[in-house]
Amino acid sequence: MSRSVNSVASRARRKKILKLAKGYFGRRKNVWTVAKNAVEKALLYAYRDRRNKKRTFRALWITRINAGARLHGLSYSQFMGKVNTNNVALNRKVLADLAMNHPEAFKAVVDKVK
Questions:
Q1: Which of 2, 24, 26, 45 is least crowded, fewest Cβ atoms below 10 Å from its Cβ?
Q2: CATH of domain 7-113
């Protein structure tokens, strides 16, 4: 009995990986084994950095809130402590946006929590 190979599925699988490798330099874009390794590594980096992006943005928001709070005589930790005790329902993303783009609104929040 002859050997059965599903070359249609194999070709489709390879094409899918090579399509993901489009734009890579040198053999990474057209040699199957090299492209497969490069794409696998790239997908790992993408997965990891989707999570790291959240951390990075949170750090940025904290820096902006700290800068805004210090203009009104509070440190970041003092300000966030007072925000939490006064039940102000604004998250760090919104507070950072207020501190950077709407200083008068941020001042109103600071005055409310003081």
A1: 2
A2: 1.10.1900.20
6: which 2 tokens?
């599903």
Q: Which residues contact 99 (CB under 8 A, 6 or more apart)?
A: 64, 65, 67, 68, 69, 106
pLDDT of residue 90: 93
Q: What are phi and psi of 23, to 5 degrees?
A: 95, -10
User: What are the boundaries of each domain within the chain?
Assistant: 7-113
pLDDT tens-digit map of 40-49: 999 999 999 9
- Give the CA distances from residue 9 to residues 5, 14, 79, 97, in Å, rounded to whole numbers and listed in that order: 9, 9, 59, 50
pLDDT beyond 90 at 69: yes
Taking the model in full, what pTM does it have?
0.80
